[in-house]
Amino acid sequence: MKKLITLLLAFLLLCSCSPKSSIEGITYSDGKYSMQIFAMDTVMTLTSYGKGSDEALLKASEEIFRLESMLSTEIDSSEVSSINSGGSAAVSDETLYIIQTALQISELTGGAFDISIAPVVREWGFISGDYHIPDAATLSSLLKNVDYSKISVSGNSVSLGEGMSIDLGAIAKGYAGQKCADLLKELGVESAILALGGNVQTVGAKPDGSLWKVAIQDPLDIDSTVGVLRCSDTAVVTSGGYQRYFEENGMRYHHIINPVTGFPADSGLISATVICPDGTLADALSTFLFVLGLEKSLDYYSTYGGFEAILITSDQEIIVTPGIAESFTFTASDTGYTCTVLE
Ligand code: FAD
Ligand code: MG
Fold first, then answer.
1. Most exposed among 1, 23, 242, 336, judged by the fewest C-beta atoms under 10 Å?
2. 33/52 Cα distance (integer angstroms)
């Protein structure tokens, strides 16, 4: 009977979500409940163990669809679309929190992280799929309106400068993962792992008390991995040029843009994984470390801390920060990688 109700709930949820999103039923085997949804243009796999997991997963998926409808630039009725279309709008506390967090990070990174990069990302075709290299004149005119310091907040109202628009694609999936983890815990779940595209969020440890194992993808061969991280109760978020890209004349162009040049970031890093208890920060960090490059990322780590990282350079060097020295196992020496754990 309980299973029937679960399936019915899944069906009702499917009927109520936006046409961009979809959900498959919950599967169950050996105490493990799992469901797959498509939201935020990404396949997400939610897995939870123990009593109450089926209802908890359904609630988590509802939460993701709720956040998508509030934060997506591709849904006209979203709060972010209201800001973009009107130049200003009053938003919920949650949207405000994400935007304010993004603005603080922009300050700390001197603009390497900038949610007003949206028109440039769009011009490259990374949202429409109509990929092309923008011409220099178009790019330079779009870059004039990329400036986080022209985003102002007053109470719950967010205003943009003339000709600007924003996109929370580098931070909102992290917020969604964090919200779902918090929700599962509130519902009594002690063991879960949520994979929202390149964002992994863990709740507690595995049911047998051992740590979760998160594989770190080889950015040069996405069917392989370079190592395994053991962790619990944290977010593990990776940004890489291999996640969304196109190729033209033998060159690869990816979706993480350097706001100074308007071109895909070419910092020497090909993957940045961040391990941080706060999913929202982990998502933003992984994006801007990728833009900053190795040296500035390590400066940022020494100055601010609060996270650990696995950084991979185009020379196939893997740099691991000291806090995860014992938790990361390097497995890719036979594919040309070297690994250095910092002290
Ligand atoms: P991340 O490194 O986390 O983020 C890269 C993304 O951040 C880029 O795609 C760009 O949007 C933005 N960005 C690039 N450079 C910078 C920078 N320097 N500073 C700040 N931000 C930057 N995609 C679609 O094609 N269609 C959709 O309908 C759609 N809906 C979405 C709804 C939501 C709520 C969210 C959060 C994302 C959505 N996306 C959509 C985006 C899609 O999921 C992206 O692939 C994803 O956000 C990129 O995440 P990532 O983990 O690969 O990279
Ligand atoms: Mg990110």
1. 1
2. 10
Determine the distance separating the centroid of ligand 1 and the alpha carbon of 264, expressed in angstroms. Answer: 13
Only one residue has tokens 């996270």, namely 307
Taking the CA atoms of 102, 107, 112 and 117 in sequence, report the sign of the dihedral they define: positive
Q: What is the DSSP string of 115-129?
A: GGGHHHHHHTTTTTS
Judged by its nearest atom, the ligand closest to the C-alpha of residue 18 is 1
Reported as a single tens digit per residue, the pLDDT across 265-277 is 999 999 999 999 9
- Provide the pLDDT for residue 23: 63
Parts of the chain with a pLDDT under 50:
1-19
Q: Which two tokens stand for residue 203?
A: 């709740």
Q: Tell which atom from ligand 1 comes closest to the C-alpha of 20.
A: 28
Measured CA to CA in angstroms, residue 133 lies from 20, 261, 331 at distances of 27, 13, 36
What's the pLDDT tens digit per position in 277-297? 999 999 999 999 999 999 999
Q: How far apart are the first and last CA of the chain?
A: 56
